[in-house]
Amino acid sequence: MSNSIQLENLRIVLVRTRNPLNIGAAARVMSNFCALYLRVVTPYERAFREAVSAVGAAPLLANAEEHKSVDDAVRDCSLVIGTTAIGHRELQHDIHSLEAAATKIRHKLVSGRVAILFGSEKTGLSNSDLSHCHWLLRIPTREEHRSMNLAQAVAVVVYEISRSTVKLAARNKLPRNAANMETINRINAALLEALQTSGYIHRRSAARAEEKLRRMLRRFELSSADAEVLLGMLRKILWKLKAPDKTAS
Fold it and tell me: Are 38 and 61 within 8 A, CB to CB?
């Protein structure tokens, strides 16, 4: 099985990248290792497709998808992973080493799309960005110098994934079909609306509650079938909550 087939479901997502040369360089290293699908979220420089650093990767850069939000960029993915240098942040996710993460990612690529998020060179991924992630990975740099150049970080991660091996033929059953983020987001919206309607949360705290719900739902790792059942339950609950009370005089 060639790397191009193995990484067919991998999506590299660059969020609010400031330097177009980094986007071009990231495209170049992705092409080196047959990771051919790049997505960018609100880049600071819209002319990134002309980056001279994308040596040999002009087609990949030309076909890069532009998205207005992380939510939109990962909508069709069943696993979303954030990258972080950690630093002094208090994170709410499990964090895996790159080596362990690569193995988990390769297993997941067999059955669905996987998105790996890289934040801007200056601020990294925001808490809101991270709320879309199932878990995080960290490249094992030394403690005294944690941060890496964006394109170099992409290179290290993609290389590690491409060299990991998974003996697919040894599996006795097909991998579970995980729910994509579009369905999970519909569940999140329905659950948030139900909690607001019931008075459990106030509208003023809805944004923070939405982030917490996103993190919680991703930890559940629902199958597509279970997600549809849960969504149906929530819609029924919402209908009941909004229905007029016919017993009232």
Answer: yes
